[in-house]
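hiii, so i know i said id send this last week but things got crazy w the move. better late than never?? heres the sequnce for the chain we talked about at the cafe, plus the structure i predicted for it. fair warning i was half asleep when i ran it
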Amino acid sequence: QVQLVESGGGLVQAGGSLRLSCAASGRTFSRYDSGWFRQVPGKEREFVFVAAISTSGGTTPYADSVKDRFTIFRDNAKNTVYLQMNSLKSEDTAVYYCAARVPGPGMTVARMYDYWGQGTQVTVSS
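okay and structure toks below
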């Protein structure tokens, strides 16, 4: 069992930055792949892939829409995964969720993740 809690969301102006944090319970977080997904307005039924990171950080796929703007990283000693979001656009407005899963294929596929946080709202104003 893994519990995840997101924080760091808020309201920012376009071009600004935010850092989201996802704190995991337990001491075995390093055994899980982790990812960030978002639900955007008009697609609330879909968890859209944003970024993911493997157990030790060696693999970090990104959605094309955020590549070169967002960075995912983790600090396993703190049981925390982060999403650094720079050059934010209004299109980034969404509820962001962190998730964790046993390592395996399909790191970009939401349904492959077993554990989810409660979500944190990110609103980018123009």
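btw The two ends are 40 Å apart (CA to CA). thought thatd interest u
miss u guys!!
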